[in-house]
Input
Amino acid sequence: MLKVQIRPHWEIRFGASPPLDTAALLGLLLAVQDTGSIAKAAKSVKLSYRYAWGLLRDAEQLFGDSLLQTGRGRGTTLTPLAQKLVWADRRIAARLSPTLESLASELEVELGKMAPDRLRMIRMDASHGFAVAALMVHLNKVEMPVELRYRNSTDAVAALSRRECDLAGFHVPTGHFQPAAMDWYTRWLDPAQHCLIHLAVRHQGLFVAPGNPLNIRGLEDLVRTDIRFVNRQIGSGTRKLLELMLDAGDINVHDINGVNSAEFTHSAVAAYIASGMADVGIGVRTAAQRFNLDFIPLVRERYFFALRQDAVDDPLIRQFIAILQLPEYHLRVNELTGYDAADTGKILSLEEAFG
Output
């Protein structure tokens, strides 16, 4: 089966100088960070020692500042400038990866139309999440034909109601905020026509810098004048959840510094904070763990795939459900920090799921 992969790529130039291709440089800097040695780093990224030094020298000349520092007994470490470059690359990848994955999937479909034995595909519109990303690894392994579009939860269920997709991935908080969230989604989900496949339970909360230097304890701290907040995009399930929690706590959303910002993934929010550009954001525990941030839990939520009831017996959908029910996939989900696969693959009516 045809697979397309699109990776972020960026260059830097000052004035009329030739552009600096960051790909090789960033790989080298990350290797130095891991090994503490230029020689070992060059070897690990398959560059000659001489070429690695030339690459570093050209970059330092371009920036007018050093990228590496050495100290007795400490080996070679990255300077603040080099660390900024590494974090910039992580932010770019965190923000763009879902979009590029969706574009790659669309391109696969378009190119697949030229094949004489064109396969029928499952059209999946889903809110981005770590369990979904892990699922795509399993689906690709068995070469299941899936057209994936990462969209926010609202757009995903709306697309399902218009029959523009076969599966719509969205998430709903448990407990106090569940009824209000489902009132929103049932604008598009009909209990007489749609059912659900349970994917996972996960934890949402606040991301803060390691050690929580600003002593942030909860949502009430977001209105502090010394706090910079980074938000998710309008229409996302996480932003909707935040608005529900702020309203319940009688917290004025307009008093929050940065509430109108918009990052498109949990990882992008985490990278924003880890790079020092904000002090707090909201997302799933997994992203906080991957960016070495502290996590303040707020609520558990369930992630579902919604689909039409008459699609459950479709052979391709049955194969999809079977993969969700594999112990191997359950193990992978449980390995994600803050995720629980106890009910993964269970088929539910909307009434069974939400009472």
